[in-house]
């Protein structure tokens, strides 16, 4: 069993990482919740695999209600949001009841958003089941849904009351979901934790300790920058180019991030910011975990980066690795970037 605590200005919460935690999950919930009714929100994939088991265990201590929605990003929408709220109200949820978000990042974001708005806020516990949600999205308190064709555009910061992780459930993940989560995991090692890198190098697969080390990177950033105004930007390493190639080639997000990291490493070395040794090590780990051994010429993507609507006009904040486990926010003026882009069009 491994444990972490997130300490923020107005709240703190525990994260428990334990193989086989699902066998006695009620013990942890009882520690912080004194009511007798819980409400699970999950998706159909996760429900097929784990809902019966989790419900049976919880029923030793609680009355259990559940809402099951279709899996996939498309469910992070207003329709499913209102569907969940409606079902919960039909099942007579009260403001002092507890929501349990059982699933991947989609369920976490959506359930967290419901928890932040229903009755102006009710408590929820994250029970992440995908690799991405276990090593990243379940902490930090960003919740929300997609709307108006834009990702995560409606949302709120809402911290969970606790996060309960059973790494054993990763055994049932589709390989494509696994590698996508690995992209963000390798990113955490690259930007903030050399020890995580050593573990990724020597262990056969993801385990309790790897998840803990990955979450500790996010913990550090979130504690410094709870509301995403600066330091959290470092989590975008690999994403600037990653987003561009995700759009162009349709790679899964985490895979695109992996390739985006390869591109940012090359650009960082070209600029003299990145230690070439760090570039080689990160690329080697990406190879080990099955990332495509392709790299697109970053100069050809600078224009996409400049016109990305997320960027504030004038300056673009790149994230580069200096040495393994350390990242910097590196602002480059748009005009300077255009010059670099022209260099490659000569
Ligand atoms: N809040 C944050 O800080 C944050 C950070 C990163 C990403 N996100 C969000 O997370 C979402 C992506 O999360 P995701 O990759 O977990 O996607 P997801 O929730 O869609 O899960 C991926 C797939 O795996 C299935 N699944 C989950 N656990 C399983 C298990 N143990 N066994 C078998 N199948 C399982 C799901 O049903 C789904 O089909 C995106 O919407 C993204 O915006 C949020
Ligand atoms: Zn990402």
Automatic annotation (TrEMBL):
<comment type="pathway">
    <text>Metabolic intermediate biosynthesis; chorismate biosynthesis; chorismate from D-erythrose 4-phosphate and phosphoenolpyruvate: step 2/7.</text>
</comment>
<dbReference type="InterPro" id="IPR050071">
    <property type="entry name" value="Dehydroquinate_synthase"/>
</dbReference>
<dbReference type="GO" id="GO:0003856">
    <property type="term" value="F:3-dehydroquinate synthase activity"/>
</dbReference>
<dbReference type="InterPro" id="IPR016037">
    <property type="entry name" value="DHQ_synth_AroB"/>
</dbReference>
<keyword id="KW-0862">Zinc</keyword>
<dbReference type="GO" id="GO:0009423">
    <property type="term" value="P:chorismate biosynthetic process"/>
</dbReference>
<keyword id="KW-0479">Metal-binding</keyword>
<feature type="binding site">
    <location>
        <position position="142"/>
    </location>
    <ligand>
        <name>NAD(+)</name>
    </ligand>
</feature>
<dbReference type="InterPro" id="IPR030960">
    <property type="entry name" value="DHQS/DOIS_N"/>
</dbReference>
<dbReference type="GO" id="GO:0046872">
    <property type="term" value="F:metal ion binding"/>
</dbReference>
<protein>
    <recommendedName>
        <fullName>3-dehydroquinate synthase</fullName>
        <ecNumber>4.2.3.4</ecNumber>
    </recommendedName>
</protein>
<feature type="binding site">
    <location>
        <position position="239"/>
    </location>
    <ligand>
        <name>Zn(2+)</name>
    </ligand>
</feature>
<dbReference type="Pfam" id="PF01761">
    <property type="entry name" value="DHQ_synthase"/>
</dbReference>
<dbReference type="InterPro" id="IPR056179">
    <property type="entry name" value="DHQS_C"/>
</dbReference>
<feature type="binding site">
    <location>
        <begin position="105"/>
        <end position="109"/>
    </location>
    <ligand>
        <name>NAD(+)</name>
    </ligand>
</feature>
<feature type="domain" description="3-dehydroquinate synthase N-terminal">
    <location>
        <begin position="67"/>
        <end position="178"/>
    </location>
</feature>
<comment type="function">
    <text>Catalyzes the conversion of 3-deoxy-D-arabino-heptulosonate 7-phosphate (DAHP) to dehydroquinate (DHQ).</text>
</comment>
<dbReference type="Pfam" id="PF24621">
    <property type="entry name" value="DHQS_C"/>
</dbReference>
<dbReference type="GO" id="GO:0008652">
    <property type="term" value="P:amino acid biosynthetic process"/>
</dbReference>
<keyword id="KW-0547">Nucleotide-binding</keyword>
<keyword id="KW-0963">Cytoplasm</keyword>
<feature type="binding site">
    <location>
        <begin position="129"/>
        <end position="130"/>
    </location>
    <ligand>
        <name>NAD(+)</name>
    </ligand>
</feature>
<feature type="binding site">
    <location>
        <position position="253"/>
    </location>
    <ligand>
        <name>Zn(2+)</name>
    </ligand>
</feature>
<dbReference type="GO" id="GO:0009073">
    <property type="term" value="P:aromatic amino acid family biosynthetic process"/>
</dbReference>
<keyword id="KW-0456">Lyase</keyword>
<feature type="binding site">
    <location>
        <position position="151"/>
    </location>
    <ligand>
        <name>NAD(+)</name>
    </ligand>
</feature>
<keyword id="KW-0170">Cobalt</keyword>
<keyword id="KW-0520">NAD</keyword>
<feature type="binding site">
    <location>
        <position position="184"/>
    </location>
    <ligand>
        <name>Zn(2+)</name>
    </ligand>
</feature>
<comment type="similarity">
    <text>Belongs to the sugar phosphate cyclases superfamily. Dehydroquinate synthase family.</text>
</comment>
<keyword id="KW-0028">Amino-acid biosynthesis</keyword>
<keyword id="KW-0057">Aromatic amino acid biosynthesis</keyword>
<dbReference type="GO" id="GO:0000166">
    <property type="term" value="F:nucleotide binding"/>
</dbReference>
<dbReference type="InterPro" id="IPR030963">
    <property type="entry name" value="DHQ_synth_fam"/>
</dbReference>
<dbReference type="GO" id="GO:0005737">
    <property type="term" value="C:cytoplasm"/>
</dbReference>
<feature type="domain" description="3-dehydroquinate synthase C-terminal">
    <location>
        <begin position="181"/>
        <end position="311"/>
    </location>
</feature>
């Amino acid at each position: 069993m491994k444990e972490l605590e997130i300490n923020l200005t107005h709240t703190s919460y525990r994260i428990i990482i334990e193989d086989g935690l699902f066998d006695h999950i009620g013990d942890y919930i009882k520690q912080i919740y004194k009511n007798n009714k819980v409400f699970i929100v999950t998706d159909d994939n996760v429900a097929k695999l784990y809902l019966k088991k989790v419900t049976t265990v919880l029923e030793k201590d609680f009355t259990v209600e559940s809402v099951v929605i279709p899996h996939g990003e498309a469910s992070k929408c207003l329709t499913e949001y209102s569907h969940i709220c409606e079902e919960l109200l039909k099942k007579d949820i009260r403001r002092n009841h507890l929501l349990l978000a059982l699933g991947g990042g989609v369920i976490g974001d959506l359930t967290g958003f419901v928890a932040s708005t229903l009755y102006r806020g009710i408590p929820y516990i994250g029970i992440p089941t995908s690799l991405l949600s276990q090593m990243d999205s379940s902490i930090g308190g960003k919740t929300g849904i997609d709307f108006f064709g834009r990702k995560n555009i409606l949302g709120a910061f809402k911290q969970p009351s606790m996060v309960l992780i059973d790494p054993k459930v990763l055994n049932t993940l589709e390989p494509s979901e696994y590698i996508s989560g690995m992209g963000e995991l390798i990113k955490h090692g690259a930007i903030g934790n050399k020890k995580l890198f050593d573990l990724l190098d020597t262990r056969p697969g993801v385990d309790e300790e790897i998840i803990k080390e990955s979450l500790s990177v996010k913990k550090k950033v979130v504690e410094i920058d709870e509301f995403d105004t600066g330091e959290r930007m470092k989590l975008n390493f690999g994403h600037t180019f990653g987003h561009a190639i995700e759009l162009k080639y349709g790679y899964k997000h985490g895979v695109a991030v992996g390739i985006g990291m390869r591109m940012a490493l090359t650009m960082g070395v070209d600029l003299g910011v990145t230690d070439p040794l760090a570039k080689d090590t990160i690329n080697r780990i990406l190879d080990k975990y099955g990332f495509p051994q392709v790299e697109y010429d970053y100069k050809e993507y600078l224009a996409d980066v400049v016109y990305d609507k997320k960027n504030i006009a004038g300056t673009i904040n790149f994230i580069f690795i200096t040495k393994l486990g350390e990242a910097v926010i590196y602002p480059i003026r748009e005009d300077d970037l255009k010059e670099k882009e022209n260099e490659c069009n000569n």
